[in-house]
Design goal:
Layout: H1 9-39, H2 43-50, H3 54-61, H4 69-79
Helix pairs in contact: 1-4
Length: 91
């Protein structure tokens, strides 16, 4: 180990952590999208009610940006869904 071209254990762990985080972010986005769709609320209505710009919501639903905890709390509150639900957790 240590020669150029070899992957260190630390680098491999870092890469795997990033992959896990990206998958988790995609799962959260899928859950948020499903909740919005199931509620029948329009993105613009959600944006106005939560003070999250509609462009931000659209970018996050397209996986171009990650959801913040604050925004998940706002969206969950408006949709009357506990935010843990977005992470696959039940309350």
């Amino acid at each position: 180990m240590g020669q150029m071209g070899e992957i260190s254990l630390h680098s491999l762990r870092s890469a795997l952590t990033l992959i896990h985080m990206e998958r988790r972010a995609a799962q959260v986005t899928t859950a948020v999208n499903r909740a919005i769709t199931d509620s029948g609320v329009e993105i613009d209505t959600l944006a106005e009610a939560t003070d999250v710009p509609s462009t931000t919501i659209r970018h996050r639903l397209a996986n171009r940006d990650e959801w913040t905890v604050a925004d998940l709390l706002r969206v969950g509150g408006f949709l009357r869904i506990h935010p843990a639900t977005f992470f696959g957790e039940t309350t």
